[in-house]
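anyone seen this seq b4? input:
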Amino acid sequence: MKHLKTAALFTGVMLLGLMTAGCGRSAETAPEAAAPSLQETAAPAEDVTDPAPAEAPSELPENVVALSRSIGELWLLAGGKLTGVTEDAMDLPGLEESAVSIGSLAHPSSEAILALDPGMILMTEDMPTHKKLAEEMRGLGLTVRTVNIDSFGDYDGIMAELTGMTGRKDLYDQNVTAVRERIGSILEEAALQQAEAGTYLCMRVSPTKNRVMKQDYFACEIISDFGLVNIAADSSALDELNLEAIAAADPDWIFVIPMGDEEEAMEVYQEVFASQAVWKELSAAAADRIVVLPSSYFMYKPNAKWDEAYRYMYDILYKE
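predicted toks r here
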């Protein structure tokens, strides 16, 4: 039997409909402000302004540099061009052949960045090396735009800003509005299913560290939008992925996301979790509801494929 929360699904669909009608943040909103997520309460439609991109500025920043694949893709989706990217982004579709590598994701080179005379640097401050580099670049008077995406609402907001810079509202409509509408259709399908309330645990495994994912992780937003409840949302007992605490909570579903070298990550998962007797006795194991999720949708930000991530989750939850 599928374990979902139908009432929550209807709420999510209604809120998504309000967002489609015009919820979001305007181009004048301060860059650091958070855009509403699919689950947040929306104002009445008549009081909400369309987050459509503003007119393009007289001059676009030249020599834009992005310090991750996901962030670089955002600028390309907005119609911009990249001069430099980290090694993980060198095969991005749409990246010009003249673009150069400025180092690895974990250790971008400040010298390589400065050599490009960047007009704007797109990066995150989630990583210690990036945070230090952002301070260094700002100290030199360079424009640094930090990007943190933990929900579809965050993606919506940054794309409104970036397409406002490029003047490509058509790309906002294509890569945000149309995606949001497809997500709404998927949630509407889910709301029609007969289902009970259920719980889940989402965990990220890697060769070096295993971590339980809280509600601020974007993949958890996707799962929760289908009505499932994250058992780790308010439980410090699960912070270190304690097997006894997991067994006590006994979630209906367990979602595993490999990070880094996937083969090595899964070897760690097998040794630390799957091979343990207590793990095999979990309800999720008995019902074949322990699922390894693809990193392309649930570890890396899906950006314009956010709806595909929702469809992937729908197919898991409502499989025959």
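The longest strand covers residues 199-205. The beta strands are 64-66, 84-85, 100-101, 120-123, 144-146, 199-205, 211-212, 229-230, 253-258, 290-292. kinda curious what u guys think
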